[in-house]
Amino acid sequence: MRRITLTACALIVGLASVVVYSQAIAPSAAVVYEGARLIIGDASAPIDSGAFVVQNGRITALGRRGAVRAPSGAARVDLTGKTVMPALVNAHVHFGYETFTRAAGESLAENFTPANLLDHLQREAFYGVGTANDGGSAPVALSLQFQLDQAARNFSPAAQYTFNAGIVPPNGGPDSILIKGTRPLHANYEVIRAPEGRAAVQDVIAKNIRHIKIWLGDRNGSYPAMPWQVYEAIIDEAHKNNITIHAHATTLRDQKEALRAGIDVLVHMVQNVLIDDELGALVREKKPYWATVISLGDRSDVCDNDPFFTQSLSDRIIADIRANGCATNPNAAAREERLKHNFMKMMDAGARLLLGADTGVRPGDAFGSGDHHEIARWVNLGLTPAQAIVAATSRPAEALGLKDVGTLAEGKMADFIVLNANPLDDIRNTRQIANVYLRGARLDRDALLAKWKKAEPTQ
Ligand SMILES: [Zn+2]
Is the whole-model pTM more than 0.85? Predict the structure, then answer.
């Protein structure tokens, strides 16, 4: 068990911190959770009446009820009638800038504090997300320190924080909302020529960061795109050092370029045109991980007053979104047809789908709740619930190189969601959350809700 602890965390934190983390997470007494249907999170069949043992924040045994031996003196929790699934893993979020004050968003550099980052990770945790990865817009030094503090248990319980270092052309990178926040903080490495790209990768490696985000494309001509010589150098330098490259690419041309250049995680789906066989062939050849990010800017759940989404937002922001952010899109039907075509064409070609929702860019698709929206959209576009759950748990963990989260299995972190209904029957049942456990400890979701409702701005 100790060996697994080290493998998973040693990349980021020192040995001493890891030991403190694993010992302080949960009471050392074993707890047996029994009777629930267990959804493992990989492609394996669920266990209809299962049991698992949690000790020191980890799952130490798991199987059919009756076949799992509990340590003597273990406490028992009866979960008959419930479904347990792994906590979600979100591979693409933008943390730290949003303050949930205005429908239009209010991303400013000064908002990015450890306290605001923690609040955003608590929002993810509230909705059952155990690990969430920032997509290249977080300040690097603050992020590294935050990880050390989180591993040392200096913060209250929240989703585990990971992040990509961003490499962009001058003034490039995050879009019009986030860029206001990122540029003054120098969150990104700004590079002009290939040697600078390679030097940026080397600097990332020196900081022990294993994931890089690059932005392809010119955002409709709003700034000069990163030249191919630069991103090819970045990808080459990264791959020589086993660093994973996540690439923002929204157009058909940019997605093809990203795949030809050999990126590992493709972020976004083409939404403005039908994708063609050439892109399909590239996906078939390269088998990229793929974060769809369909939810970005989608406020329909708040507009519909869906309590699952509005419960964690202040009344003020809900009213603002409903007043200013709920105009119907006259092109919605045509867009939906393109999404259906493009999504299943990518899936049929073998894209390795994973959860990434761009939550944090706009308040309407908020941390955690936006993740559930994204998952349900996949099913809506043609995926089975079982496939969607894999794409929201074990596959993002695999893509992020996180060996101890993403499935329910012996040796894994005890990060799990207890559901009142079975999401294999209806994917929207991922929203029927009874409890969330992180590192074996039950999250106090009521206290978090009280905090967010109390934090109501007065003006
Ligand atoms: Zn993004």
Answer: yes
